[in-house]
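Tokens in:
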């Protein structure tokens, strides 16, 4: 069976741990990064199928990572889901314009995350 790979990028260890638990529950192997710079390096080592990306982080924020990843790896891969507390419509549009495929508001749970992954074709929708 094909190994599914996810990179969770968040400066909060608690959020990374929760997201890891959700994604492992969906059958993904999970790696973690604490900022966009670490995430870019992790993508260069092994491009994941999906990235769960926080917006507000030190060193390199999520939007900067998103633009760099799209410039380096192209628009299709990896699928990038922005997971953030940013609620302004303009911010959502900015993230989608920069190449994010989906947007999840924090706090999120496995059901919300699973529905977004299903919309992206990364999970079978629950029957």
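Residues out:
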């Amino acid at each position: 069976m094909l190994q599914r790979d996810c990179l969770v990028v968040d400066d909060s260890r608690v959020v990374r741990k929760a997201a890891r638990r959700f994604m492992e529950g969906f059958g993904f192997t999970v790696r973690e990064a604490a900022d966009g710079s670490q995430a870019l390096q992790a993508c260069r080592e092994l491009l994941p199928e999906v990235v769960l990306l926080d917006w507000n982080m030190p060193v390199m924020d999520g939007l900067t990572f998103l633009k760099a990843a799209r410039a380096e790896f192209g628009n299709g891969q990896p699928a990038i889901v922005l997971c953030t507390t940013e609620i302004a419509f303009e911010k959502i549009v900015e993230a989608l314009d920069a190449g994010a495929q989906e947007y999840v508001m924090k706090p999120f749970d496995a059901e919300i995350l699973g529905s977004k992954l299903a919309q992206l074709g990364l999970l079978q929708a629950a029957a």
